[in-house]
Design goal:
The structure holds 3 protein chains of 3 kinds. Chain A has 7 helices and 12 strands. By secondary structure, chain A is of the alpha+beta class. In chain A, the strands form 3 sheets. In chain A, strands 3-2-1-5-8 form a 5-stranded mixed sheet. Chain B is mainly α. Chain B is elongated and about 75 Å long. The relative contact order of chain B is 0.18. Classes of the chains: A alpha+beta, B mainly alpha, C mainly alpha.
Chain lengths: 363, 261, 573
C-alpha cells in the first residue's frame, strides 16, 4: 500500500497559509485537551477512594474568579482562530482582478474544464458511458506554476464541490448560479482533485488529477489540446467577420429570412455541385479558395454574392483556424447569428443572473 | 358542583385545579409557539422569493380571487370573537350560550373552508395550478398571441391570466426588463397552495376541536371549573386566525396600488 | 466509630430502606395492552428504551457494513449504489431514531417527574401519543431504508434529492417529518412539567442540572423542529408535484433548502448533546461525592448553548455559496457557542478536585465522555475557523469531529445514564466487572475507529466515498478495526444488562448513594413515584454534607470501604 506523507502535500499559496494556522489550532487545542486530561487523570488518581479512607469532602461550590478565567481565556483564544482564519479565507476567496479565467462545469459525474483560449479537458467520469468526443477530452486539470488563475464554476444538474486538498481549497458548485474562486499554484506536481459534495451514484468517481507544470509545459499542453482549440479560435474569427450573418445554420433556414448562403454544417468531405456543372470535394483547399476567391467556384443554386475582400482580412493562421472550425461543424453545431456571448460549452443556455442571487430559468 | 364532577375534572397527577389549568394553558402556548415557527419557515421562504421576483409575484397575486379572501378574513375574525364569547359562557356556567357560541364559531370556520374550497375550485378550473396545468395553458396562450392581436378580445377559450402573461412576454428577450418568467409565477403558486393548504388543514383541526367541545358541552362535561378547556381551544383558534391575517396580505395584496416593477 | 463529615447538620441515622411496594410500576398490570395503553411516564420511558435499542442496532449494523466496505480502496463488499444507501441509512436511523429522542425520551420521561418530586409529566396522554407518533414516523423511515433505501445522505440536499434520486426519499422524509412531532411533544411536556409541577421547596436553583439540561433541550426542540418540518414538507412537495421550490431550473434556490435545513439541524445537535451533559453532572457529583463546581455556570451554560446554538447554522455552508460577510458573521458566532461547552468541561473537571472518587461503570463512561467530548469539541474549532474549514469541509475530519461528539459524547452519556439509573428502573444490579470492562472496550474501540479519520480528513479524503485512492487505505483499515472493537463493546451491555433482569442482585433504593429525589423511592419505583409528598430541603449534590435533597442522611456509598463503617445499620445488603 502506498503511504500517506506525514504532512500533506502543499501546492498553492493558500495551502502555505493554511498550514501554520492549522497547526496553531492543533497546538492550542492539544494543550487545552491535555490540561483537561491531565486534570482528570491527576484528580482521579490523587482523590480515588482507597480502602481505609474516611469519606470526607469539602463543600466547594465554585469560584467566580476561576469561572471568569476559563471563560475569557478560551474566548480570546477562539477569537484568535477566528481572526487568523478570516485572513486565510480572505486570501482564498478573493481573486486578483487580472487573473485569467477558467470555466468549469460540473455534471454527474465529470468535470468539464475550459481554458480561456478555448481548450477543453474532461476530468473524472466513467469513460465507458462517454461519447467519443468526451472520451477524447479526458485528461488532467493542468495549471502553470506561479500564475494566479480564477476559476468560475456552474453545475448542470446537482450540487457538486471542486476540492483540491493540495491547494487546501474547495468550493461548492451549484446549478443556476456561477461561483468563483482562484488558485495560485506554487509547486510542480500531480495532486488529487475530488468532488466533495455528495452528488449521487458515482460521486466518488468524479475525481482526477491537478497537474501543476512549468509555463513551457503548460504552453505545450495548450497546443497539444488541438481538438477544440483551433476550431474554437476559428469560431471566434467566423463570428468576428460576421460570416454567420449569411451562412446561417440549418435550423434557421426554415425561418422567415431567406438564407443568403448555404449552411456549412456537415459540409466537410462532401461533394458539392457547382454552377456551370461539375462537382468539387470539400477539402481544406476548397474552403481556403472559397474564402479568398469566392467567385472561383459557386455552388449550384446560390448567387455569387460573397464579398471578395476577405483575403486582406485573414492571415494564413486565421485561415487554418477557420478551416478547422468548418471542418468540425456537424449538423446543429453552428452558432446562430444572434448569439453574442455564449456561455461555456454545456452550460445551460439563456442564463439570467439577477442581482445578488440565483434565478436560472428556461423560458 | 358535585364531588364526582370535581374529581373528574382534576387529573390524578396534578395537586389542584389551578396547577392543572396553569399547566394546560402553558402547554397550549408552547404548542402555539411551535406553530408560529412552522409557518415562519414558510414565510421566510416566501419572502426570499418575493424579494427576488417582485414582478412575477405581483402578477400572480393579482390573479387570485381577492373577494373570497376578504370574505374569509371577515368570517375568521368573527369566529375568534365568538370563541372568546364561548369562554365567557363556560366561565359563567351558561351551557346553552356556550353551545350557541361554539356552533356559531364552527359555522363561521366551516364557512371559511367552504369559500376556500370554492376558491380552489375556481383556481383549478382556470388551470392556475403550478406544474403541467399551468404550462399547458401558458403554451396555448403563447401560441394564440403569436397569431392574434391583443385587442381582439377573443381569447380562444384560453384563461385570462395566461393571455395576459403571454401578451406581456410577447417578443421580449428573457433577459430584458419587464419579462415575467412563467416558472417564477408557478413558484408563487406553489407557495399559495402550500401556505393556504396547510392553513386549511389547521382550520380543519380546529373545527375538529370545536366539535369535541360541542360534544363535551352536550354531555354536560364543561362545568365552570373546566372552562380552561374551552380557553385552550380558543387560543389555538386565535392563532390560526392570526396566521391568516399575515398570510392574506402576503399572498393576495402583493403589488396592489403599486405598478408592477 | 462513626465516619466524620464536614459541617454536619445532624448526625441523623440513615433512613431505613423504603419497603418495596407490592405494586411498583413494572408489575402494576401485566399484558401487552397494559403497556401499549399506559399513561405512566415510567412505562413510556421503557417503551422508548426498547424501541431505541432496536433502532440503534439497525443503525449500528449499517455502520458496520459501511466500515467493512471501506477496508478496500475499491469498496470491499458493496457497490457504489448500495454504499450510498447504507451510509444514508446509518445517518437517518442514528440521528432521527436514536440520538434525538435518546435521553429526553427515555430518561427524561422516566426521571424528570421523579427528580422534581411530581407524580407524572404534565400531559401523560400526550406522552403516550408521542411514542406512537415516534413509532409511526420510525415505521416510515425504516421501511424507506429497508425497502430499497435512500441514497441522498441524511442531509437530503436538493436538487439531487428532489429531482435526481430514484430512491425512497419521500417516505423517508415523511418519516422524519412525523418523528419531529414526537420530539416537539416530548419537549413541550418536559418544559410544562418543569415549570408547573415542582415539589414544594424545589426552586429553580435547587433543581438537578439534569433538569436544567432537559429544559434547555426542550427549548431547542420546540423552536427548531417545526422549521425542519416545513422544510421537509417543501421538499416532498417539490419531489412529488414536480415543482421548483429549490430547483434553479424552475426559479428556486438550492441554498434556501440548506438554510432552512440547517436552521434546525444545527440546534438538533445540541438537542442530542445537552441532555448528555445533564447526565454527566449527575454522575460526576455522585461518584466523587462532591457538589458540582459552579452550579449556576453549568445551568446557565445549557441555556446559553440552546440560545446561541440557533445563531450559527450557516457554518455548515461556508463553502456552499454564502456571501463573504455572512461567512465571517457565522464563524464569529460559532466561536461564541464553543465557550459554554468549554466552561462545562472545566467545571466538571474541577468537581473532581478533593473528591472521593470511585470508578463504577457510570463513572467510567462519564470519564470517557469527558475525554472524548473535549477532543470532539475542540476539533469543531477547526471547522468554525474559516481558513481551515475550506479545506476540511466534507472530509473525514468532519466525520471524525461529529462522531467524537455524538458517539464519544452523547452515546457514552447515554450508556452512563443507563448504567446509573438501571437499578432504579429495573430494580436489579448488573455485573460490576463486565460493565467496567465494556466501558473500557468502548473507549478503546472508539479511539481506534475515529482518530485515524482526523488524519484522513487532513489529507483530504472526502466523505461519502465508497472507494478511494489507495494511499488512504491504512487509516481506513485501522478505523474498521476499531469499529469492530466498538461493536463488541456495545454488544456487551446488551448481554449483561439483559442477564441482570433475570439474575441480577435486587437493587436497593439508593445503590449509588445519590442525592436526587428519584432515589428516595424504592427500586423499581412506586406507580405514582412517591408515597409521600416530597418536601425539598436543600440543593442537589450536597454530598459533602452527606444529605439528600429531602435533608435525610445518605446511605454509605458503594466502593472501597473503611473497615468499620456502618454498613450494617442502614439495612442494605
Amino acid at each position: 500500500m502506498t503511504e500517506l506523507p506525514g504532512l500533506a502535500d502543499r501546492a498553492s499559496v493558500v495551502a502555505d497559509r493554511f498550514e501554520p494556522l492549522f497547526w496553531y489550532i492543533v497546538a492550542c487545542t492539544s494543550i487545552g485537551t491535555l490540561i483537561v486530561c491531565v486534570g482528570l487523570v491527576a484528580f482521579c488518581t490523587m482523590y480515588r477512594r482507597k480502602r481505609g479512607d474516611t469519606i470526607s469532602t469539602p463543600r466547594i461550590l465554585g469560584s467566580h474568579k476561576l469561572e471568569l478565567f476559563w471563560t475569557v481565556i478560551p474566548l480570546i483564544i477562539f477569537l484568535t482562530f477566528f481572526v487568523w482564519g478570516m485572513w486565510v479565507y480572505d486570501g482564498a476567496v478573493h481573486p486578483p482582478a487580472d487573473a485569467p479565467e477558467i470555466k468549469v462545469i460540473g455534471k454527474q459525474w465529470m468535470w468539464k474544464i475550459q481554458y480561456p483560449s478555448g481548450q477543453r479537458v474532461i476530468v473524472g467520469g466513467n469513460t465507458d458511458v462517454m461519447t467519443d468526443e468526451e472520451r477524447n477530452l479526458v485528461g488532467a486539470f493542468v495549471l502553470p506554476i506561479d500564475k494566479p488563475v480564477k476559476v468560475t464554476f456552474i453545475s448542470e444538474d446537482v450540487i457538486h464541490d471542486f476540492g483540491i486538498p493540495a491547494f487546501r481549497q474547495k468550493i461548492d458548485v451549484i446549478p443556476g448560479r456561477y461561483v468563483s474562486t482562484w488558485y495560485h499554484p506554487n509547486k510542480i506536481g500531480e495532486y488529487h482533485l475530488f468532488c466533495d459534495q455528495y452528488c449521487g451514484n458515482l460521486h466518488s468517481r468524479m475525481v482526477g488529477k491537478v497537474k501543476v507544470v512549468s509555463q513551457d509545459d503548460f504552453d505545450a499542453f495548450l497546443r497539444e489540446k488541438a481538438d477544440g482549440s483551433l476550431a474554437w479560435e476559428g469560431q471566434q474569427i467566423f463570428r468576428k467577420l460576421q460570416c454567420n450573418s449569411c451562412h446561417t445554420p440549418n435550423a434557421q433556414s426554415g425561418a422567415k429570412v431567406h438564407p443568403r448562403a448555404p449552411s456549412l454544417e456537415g459540409l466537410w468531405g462532401r461533394d458539392v455541385p457547382l454552377k456551370g456543372g461539375g462537382t468539387a470535394e470539400v477539402t481544406e483547399q476548397y474552403i481556403r479558395e472559397s474564402i479568398v476567391n469566392p467567385r472561383a467556384k459557386v455552388v449550384e443554386g446560390w448567387e455569387p454574392i460573397m464579398p471578395g475582400n476577405y483575403e486582406s482580412q485573414v492571415s494564413e493562421d486565421d485561415l487554418t483556424k477557420v478551416i478547422a472550425y468548418i471542418r468540425s461543424l456537424k449538423s446543429g453545431k453552428q452558432i446562430p447569428n444572434n448569439e453574442k456571448f455564449p456561455p461555456p460549452d454545456g452550460a445551460p443556455r439563456d442564463m439570467k443572473t439577477p442581482a445578488g442571487s440565483t434565478g436560472g430559468s428556461k423560458p | 358542583m358535585s364531588a364526582s364532577t370535581h374529581s373528574s375534572v382534576l387529573k390524578h397527577h396534578f395537586d389542584n385545579l389551578e396547577q392543572q389549568h396553569s399547566a394546560e394553558k402553558l402547554g397550549m402556548w408552547m404548542f402555539l409557539v411551535t406553530e408560529v415557527l412552522f409557518f415562519s419557515g414558510l414565510f421566510v421562504a416566501y419572502t426570499v422569493y418575493r424579494h427576488f421576483y417582485p414582478a412575477e409575484f405581483a402578477f400572480a397575486s393579482s390573479h387570485l380571487v381577492l373577494w373570497i379572501a376578504g370574505v374569509n378574513t371577515a368570517l375568521l375574525i368573527t369566529s375568534s370573537l365568538t370563541m372568546t364569547l364561548a369562554i365567557r359562557a363556560a366561565q359563567l356556567g351558561k351551557r346553552s350560550d356556550l353551545m350557541r357560541w361554539l356552533v356559531v364559531s364552527f359555522a363561521l370556520g366551516a364557512g371559511f373552508m367552504g369559500f376556500k374550497a370554492f376558491e380552489y375550485y375556481t383556481d383549478i378550473h382556470e388551470q392556475f395550478v403550478p406544474g403541467s396545468m399551468f404550462q399547458t395553458e401558458y403554451a396555448r396562450a403563447v401560441e394564440h398571441v403569436a397569431h392574434h392581436s391583443a385587442a381582439a378580445g377573443d381569447h380562444g377559450g384560453i384563461q385570462h391570466w395566461a393571455i395576459e402573461l403571454a401578451e406581456n412576454n410577447k417578443g421580449k428577450d428573457p433577459n430584458s426588463e419587464g419579462y415575467i418568467f412563467p416558472e417564477r409565477v408557478q413558484l408563487f403558486l406553489c407557495f399559495y397552495y402550500i401556505m393556504t393548504g396547510i392553513h386549511g388543514i389547521h382550520i380543519i383541526a380546529g373545527l375538529g376541536c370545536i366539535v369535541w367541545l360541542m360534544l363535551l358541552t352536550k354531555c354536560d362535561k364543561i362545568p365552570p371549573q373546566r372552562y380552561a378547556t374551552v380557553e385552550i381551544v380558543s387560543l389555538y383558534w386565535h392563532l390560526v386566525d392570526m396566521i391568516w391575517l399575515f398570510l392574506m396580505p402576503l399572498l393576495y395584496l402583493v403589488g396592489t396600488g403599486v405598478k408592477g416593477h | 466509630m462513626s465516619t466524620a463529615y464536614a459541617e454536619p447538620q445532624t448526625i441523623a441515622p440513615v433512613p431505613p430502606e423504603p419497603e418495596a411496594p407490592p405494586r411498583n410500576y413494572l408489575n402494576n398490570g401485566y399484558g401487552i395492552l397494559s403497556w401499549l395503553l399506559t399513561v405512566d411516564h415510567k412505562r413510556i420511558g421503557i417503551l422508548y428504551l426498547v424501541s431505541l435499542t432496536a433502532f440503534f442496532t439497525v443503525g449500528g449494523i449499517a455502520a458496520g457494513l459501511v466500515r467493512l466496505n471501506l477496508l478496500s480502496p475499491d469498496g470491499a463488499i458493496l457497490t457504489e449504489d448500495q454504499y450510498n444507501r447504507m451510509f444514508t441509512a446509518h445517518g437517518v436511523v442514528m440521528l432521527f431514531l436514536f440520538l434525538i429522542p435518546s435521553i429526553p425520551a427515555v430518561m427524561g420521561n422516566f426521571f424528570i417527574p421523579m427528580m422534581i418530586g411530581a407524580k407524572d409529566l404534565a400531559f401523560p396522554k400526550l406522552n403516550l401519543a408521542s411514542w406512537y407518533v415516534f413509532m409511526i414516523g420510525a415505521g416510515f423511515m425504516v421501511w424507506a431504508v429497508l425497502a430499497g433505501g435512500i441514497d441522498t445522505g441524511w442531509t437530503l440536499y436538493p436538487p439531487y434529492s428532489s429531482r435526481f434520486s430514484h430512491t425512497n426519499v419521500t417516505p423517508g422524509a415523511f418519516g422524519a417529518f412525523i418523528t419531529g412531532f414526537s420530539s416537539i411533544m416530548t419537549g413541550l411536556n418536559i418544559m410544562a412539567t418543569i415549570h408547573k409541577m415542582r415539589a414544594p421547596g424545589m426552586t429553580w436553583g435547587r433543581m438537578p442540572l439534569f433538569c436544567w439540561a432537559l429544559y434547555a433541550t426542550s427549548f431547542i426542540q420546540l423552536l427548531g423542529t417545526p422549521v425542519v418540518a416545513i422544510t421537509l414538507v417543501l421538499l416532498m412537495v417539490e419531489r412529488v408535484a414536480g415543482v421548483g421550490v429549490f430547483d434553479p431550473a424552475m426559479g428556486g434556490d438550492p441554498l434556501l433548502f440548506q438554510h432552512l435545513f440547517w436552521f434546525y439541524s444545527h440546534p438538533a445537535v445540541y438537542i442530542m448533546i445537552v441532555p448528555g451533559m445533564g447526565v454527566i453532572s449527575e454522575i460526576i457529583t455522585c461518584f466523587s461525592r462532591k457538589n458540582i463546581f459552579g452550579y449556576k455556570a453549568v445551568a446557565w451554560s445549557s441555556v446559553g448553548i440552546a440560545v446561541v446554538g440557533f445563531l450559527v447554522w450557516s457554518h455548515h455552508m461556508f463553502v456552499a455559496g454564502i456571501s463573504y460577510y455572512s461567512a465571517l458573521l457565522f464563524s464569529f458566532l460559532t466561536m461564541l457557542v464553543a465557550v459554554p461547552s468549554a466552561i462545562k468541561v472545566f467545571n466538571w473537571t474541577a468537581t473532581l478536585y478533593r473528591g472521593s472518587i470511585t470508578f463504577q461503570a457510570p463513572m467510567l463512561f462519564t470519564l470517557a465522555f469527558l475525554v472524548l467530548f473535549t477532543v470532539g469539541g475542540v476539533t469543531g474549532l477547526f471547522l468554525a475557523t474559516l481558513g481551515t474549514d475550506i479545506h476540511l469541509h466534507d472530509t473525514y475530519f468532519v466525520v471524525a469531529h461529529f462522531h467524537f461528539v455524538m458517539v464519544g459524547g452523547m452515546v457514552l452519556a447515554y450508556m452512563a445514564a443507563i448504567h446509573f439509573w438501571w437499578p432504579k428502573m429495573t430494580g436489579r444490579m448488573y455485573s460490576d466487572f463486565w460493565s467496567r470492562a465494556s466501558a473500557t472496550v468502548i473507549f478503546v474501540g472508539f479511539f481506534l475507529t475515529f482518530v485515524p479519520q482526523f488524519v484522513l480528513g487532513y489529507h483530504g479524503m472526502p466523505r461519502r466515498y465508497p472507494n478511494y485512492p489507495a494511499e488512504f487505505q491504512v487509516y481506513n483499515i485501522l478505523s474498521t478495526a476499531g469499529a469492530s472493537i466498538l461493536g463488541l463493546g456495545y454488544l456487551m451491555p446488551g448481554i449483561y444488562l439483559t442477564l441482570s433482569l433475570f439474575f441480577g442482585e435486587k437493587a436497593p433504593a439508593n445503590p449509588w448513594s445519590a442525592t436526587g429525589l428519584e432515589w428516595a423511592s424504592p427500586s423499581p419505583p412506586h406507580v405514582f413515584n412517591f408515597e409521600f409528598v416530597p418536601v425539598v430541603k436543600c440543593g442537589p449534590y450536597e454530598y459533602s454534607l452527606n444529605v439528600d435533597q429531602l435533608g435525610r442522611t445518605l446511605p454509605e456509598p458503594p466502593g472501597p470501604m473503611a473497615p468499620n463503617t456502618l454498613k450494617e445499620t442502614n439495612g442494605v445488603g
